[in-house]
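User: what does the whole thing look like in 3D?
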Amino acid sequence: MSKKDGDFSDRVYWIVSQIPFGCVSTYGQIATYAGSARAARAVGNLMRQSLKNGQEVPWHRVINSRGGISSKGDTERAELQRRLLTAEGVEFGANQCCELDRFRWTPQEVFWDG
DNA sequence: TTAGTGACTGCAT
DNA sequence: CATGCAGCCACTA
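Assistant: Here's the predicted 3D structure for the full assembly of 114 residues, as structure tokens:
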């Protein structure tokens, strides 16, 4: 453990909170902006904890690289997420995936050093 | 500090 | 084209 255990997670929460209405992002993308491009898994865990911790972040706008929803057993939460995204205008195909090229969010600010 | 875990991802079968 | 497998990283006990 380090002295600052809220470094990465805080950045992730902040970045996710910056995702605008009607847009989506991927775990890997969030991880990249947070500073660790390979920490997509950790981002997923943080999102799962965000619900438990009651973090006010649009966790439903974070999906996997395929443009789909990762439920890992929690089908109820998955349906909720799909419903929320659909309500925001994100269209899901029969394969339960949306077109990332069309709905992916690209931040206009630079997060890394600069 | 060590070990275990998972809402990921890309490459190989 | 659909599965399987092995890295990678941060968090928790």
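In plain terms: Strands of chain A lie at 25-26, 62-63. Chain A has one domain: 7-103.
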